[in-house]
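Wed. Picked up where I left off yesterday with MFS transporter, MHS family, proline/betaine transporter. The coffee machine is broken again, so keeping this brief.
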Amino acid sequence: MEEARKNAVHLDRSIKKLGGLPKELPNDALQIPDEELAFYYHSSTEHGDDNIWGLLSGVGGNIYEWYDFAVFGLLAPEIGSAFFPESSKKLQLISSFSVYLAAFLMRPAGAILFGEMGDRIVGRRHALIFSILLITIPSILMGCLPTYETWGAFAAFLLIILRMLQGLSVGGQLAGSYVLSIEQSSAKTRGFRGSICDASSVGGFLLASAVTTVTRSVLTEDQVNRWGWRVPFLFSLLLAPLLYATVSRAEESKLWSERIEQKSTVATVPEKEQTPAVVDLFSSPFRRRQLAGMIGVLSAVTSSFYTIFLWTPVYLSELRGVMKEQAADLINFCVVSLYICFLLAAGKLSDKFPHRMDLIRIGLPALIVTAPTMFGVFECESWVGYLLAQLQFCFCLSLIQGSMAAWEVELWMSDPTLSFTGVAIGHNIAATLFGGTMPLVATFLYYVGEDILDSSSDDVVWPRMLPGLYISVLGCISFYCISYVVRHPHDLRGDSKLQEAVKRKMDEAQIEKNEQRHELGDSSCSNTNNYLPPII
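Structure written out below (tokens, as returned):
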């Protein structure tokens, strides 16, 4: 009871600052489901100690996994030629991007697998280690895989299998780094530490872009097509030992460990009735709404991310043919480098706003406008225009993604035994539906635009802007979801009626449970963690 009183002090102080509350609350303010009640309550908790090794393990894991994942997309033309040589150049590129999509189809499965491991079985740290091991082996094998010339169609089949194993791993790694880092963060640093995780993912793309650019610069075009494309895959062998040494020094999330201990002590659910985390996630109407809204918000981010860092170099070099691959990769390298700076600044800035979603709401309208504008500027046939158009787009995207990692984890932090699963499933479904399909969709829209231009006698620009207009549509969906679908713990701030309702119902829940424990004569069941809400 004493701990419940301490937990309510923070809310009491916030309420007093508002000048008091009405004694009677409307019925709709009091009819709050228990799960939503705990969700809002968690906004007032403090538990993180800004552990550096948890952050470094997530950063290292992201760089490594996203390096391996991005290399395939950047080498799509060479891989298409090596494994689909009998197709036309157009079909080779589409076939290569189809294999790229196959990895994304496995990411939701990886989210369920690693979510269960991270939430219910081994914890966040060990789930991260397993995901790193899972991506290392396929990457090495992919660098040694015989091509179509040697093994025929069987080589393409094995390529798809290895790529799917990579997708299974990535399905748990990014979410694990998010959750471990944010749960070890104080409330005032979540946005910045989350942006470091996202920046490290972009760093993986940057490293992949750098290695790919060096490979294409040092080797001749014929050498790259015959065997040079293997070098970036085998380069991952140098990174694996360093990464394992970093992750092994990380501590487990205290929030998760103590929630597991709390649940085992209170024993609210008999052991035989325990259900998988994914079942608990989808069995709740409130959580299903949160998940749907989260996927909607991420639709614009994931599609934009893979467009600018993966498809745009291919668009400028292979499809439009306005520059060579080396030049497109160099511009991409510069854009990615500056984007990392944009991300870190946006993450730091998001911690200054009163609501986590404020900066996201600023960035989404800007993204809606700049997405088609970028493709319009590409028609200027100037390197300066190519660079500035991409930087403008990246700046607007960073305003959204800078606080996205913290936002995703905070949606599920009220129950640490579900947060890994919630973040992983929501993020990876969005990445699969909108990120994994983006190269195919963008390539298809490009050829649709080409057909329109071929059949039109007018010299118009808008058919070239179709991929950007598609992103704009997704941006509108994201803005609607973040404004009217998703709820966030910061919604409690400034809403005096909701604050009072949460405080009253939490007190009632704690009193009722203490009475039950008193009747059972079990004093050991009291909650000793001053930042965990009671299990209700």
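Quick read: Residues 285-319 form the longest helix (35 residues).
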